[in-house]
Amino acid sequence: MIPLRTIALSCLALAPVAVSAGACKPRSTDLTTAASTLETASSSEALQSTATDVTTAVTSTIETTASSVLETTEASTIETTSEAAATTSSAPCPSYTQINPPPSGKVCGKVVTRGTSDSSPLYLTSQLSTTGLTGCAKYCGDTPGCVSFYAEDYVPGSGAPTFNICFMFKGYEKDIPFGSGQNGGSAYYEQDCFACVRDEAPQPPIPS
Question: Where does the secretion signal sit in this chain (predicted)?
Fold first, then answer.
């Protein structure tokens, strides 16, 4: 048998003259194996790259969805809270209480008489209150445009309790033709002399 060293030296000697020696030529099976190895490596790299792309896409989709859900939830919460606040603020006040001491700059309890106030263009309407001044404040609060009222004492008969007739106005005392003098417990009030109380029962209905 020819030693491997001899074969190797023969190949080197024949290479410059382009002699194709069988012992020096790679076998076709070797080339096929090498090509298969390269193809497998390329396929593996492609799969790894595809898997990375898929993972990135899924992660991005999850993050986007989570962000969208969070934003929608926050917006819904804000909208619900705003609607509840608007409903509360627009609901009629069930009852009022007189503010003591009176607010600065407001006319509260000024003694006047009716005069010709009920013929004033600022006059709106009148109601009988069975709960005193706070009842007048309730009527004024429920009457669109009302900013003040004049409460006049009213006794329906001998021994009967004293009620108030509430004359409501869309203007203020300086522009209303009240009379001067004193008429029992009758007096003029601006609506801001009273505060809304939402945790008390509303005024009872007027007896027929």
Answer: 1-21
Token pair 């801001």 is at which residue? 192
Rounded Cα–Cα distance for residues 183 and 94 (Å): 30
| Residue 26, both tokens | 């790679």
Evaluate the CA torsion angle 61, 67, 72, 77 in order and state its sign: positive
Which of 180, 173, 178, 196 lies closest to 106, judged by CA?
173
Assess contact for 185 and 129: CB atoms under 8 A: no
Burial class (CB in 10 A: 0-12, 13-18, 19+), 158: exposed
Q: What angle do CA 117, 123, 125 make, to 5 degrees?
A: 115
Which two three-digit tokens encode residue 112?
Answer: 């006047």
Please report which confidence band the pLDDT of residue 11 belongs to, taking 50, 70 and 90 as the band edges.
very low
Q: Are 146 and 170 in contact (CB under 8 A)?
A: yes
Of 119, 130, 124, the residue nearest 149 (C-alpha)? 124
Closest C-alpha to 166, from 139, 185, 199: 139
CA-CA distance, 201 to 33, in Å (whole number)?
95
How many Å apart are CA 69 and CA 55, to the nearest integer?
21
Largest CA distance in the chain: 150
pTM (two decimals): 0.55
- Measured CA to CA in angstroms, residue 134 lies from 37, 104, 155 at distances of 97, 19, 18
